[in-house]
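TA notes, week 10

Several of you asked for a full example with nothing omitted. So below is the full record: structure tokens for the whole chain, then the designed sequence directly under it. When grading your own attempts, check the secondary structure regions first.
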């Protein structure tokens, strides 16, 4: 069983470059925050609250998958001149590191989430080697979907609040208070998650899809089977994989096959068709990798997604 480990480290606030151009209602320059993925953006909005002195921008707001996002020239320029940058620091956004080389703001604060919570997958060396050979996984077996842990999210929000407080000392108390209140909501949801898993009939789930939820499963001691590791580029599962997963479903009497948002469900359907009962449900967990501006305007938030994920996971475990 793979184990996840959270190691708090110092916030990486790299000194780089830029200046904010937008202004608040009093004509002062706004602090310009750039976020690369939706969870970071939503956390930052919550911490800013009603403050008019901060503007926050989500780069990937067109619904493009996080892994295939291609930055525009405007994105590179925005990063080079922002006041605070929040990014994952994984394989999928390595382009950010290149963009930072041309930064023009000497006071920029860079929050690299992988340096705040080193959520490394601890596996036996021989197992990790086999995964590299079979799946060509990311270096060091690292899964970059660290925002799908509520425990990690609390760490990240604390880091964002401190960066905002440093950049805008006049409103530091507000940012810290907002972060404290939001983190309490994350902690409450984390406790709810824990309770529902502990009282569930089962402690195992099966994914007929890619598998970005390793941190969520590890946080609550849930065992799992998956067609692919992480967000593998593979899209078709072999016959043996499908049959083996179907056997696991039968053996553990699992009531549902899980997928991620936007799945075509082909693999999940194939797995179900190879089980004895052929009557399992297909349920989707939301990994928040393809959130669009329209979704945000419709009220989608990190908390609302995770609350829904609790409902889905609870159904899959009972």
């Amino acid at each position: 069983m793979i184990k996840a480990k959270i190691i708090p480290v110092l916030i990486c606030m790299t000194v780089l470059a830029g200046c904010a151009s937008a202004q608040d209602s009093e004509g002062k320059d706004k602090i310009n925050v750039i976020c690369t993925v939706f969870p970071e953006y939503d956390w930052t909005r919550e911490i800013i609250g009603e403050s008019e002195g901060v503007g926050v921008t989500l780069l990937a707001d067109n619904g493009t998958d996080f892994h295939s996002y291609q930055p525009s020239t405007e994105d590179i320029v925005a990063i080079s001149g922002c006041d605070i940058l929040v990014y994952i620091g994984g394989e999928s956004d390595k382009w950010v590191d290149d963009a930072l080389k041309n930064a023009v703001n000497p006071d920029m604060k860079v929050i690299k989430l992988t340096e705040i919570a080193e959520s490394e997958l601890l596996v036996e060396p021989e197992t990790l080697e086999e995964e590299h050979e079979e799946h060509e996984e990311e270096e060091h077996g690292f899964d970059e979907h660290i925002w799908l842990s509520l425990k990690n999210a609390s760490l990240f929000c604390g880091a964002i609040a401190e960066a905002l407080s440093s950049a805008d000392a006049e409103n530091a108390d507000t940012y810290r208070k907002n972060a404290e209140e939001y983190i309490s909501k994350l902690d409450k949801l984390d406790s709810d998650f824990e309770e529902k898993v502990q009282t569930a009939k089962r402690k195992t789930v099966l994914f007929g899809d890619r598998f970005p939820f390793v941190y969520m499963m590890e946080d609550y001691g849930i065992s799992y089977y998956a067609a692919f590791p992480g967000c593998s580029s593979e899209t078709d599962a072999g016959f043996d994989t499908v049959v083996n997963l179907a056997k696991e479903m039968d053996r553990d009497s699992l009531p549902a096959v899980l997928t991620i948002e936007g799945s075509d469900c082909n693999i999940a359907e194939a797995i179900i068709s190879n089980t004895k009962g052929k009557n399992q449900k297909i349920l989707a967990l939301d990994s928040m990798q393809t959130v669009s501006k329209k979704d945000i305007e419709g009220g989608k938030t990190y908390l609302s997604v995770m609350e829904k994920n609790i409902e889905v996971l609870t159904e899959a475990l009972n």
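The chain is about 40% helix and 15% strand. Use that as a sanity check on your answer.
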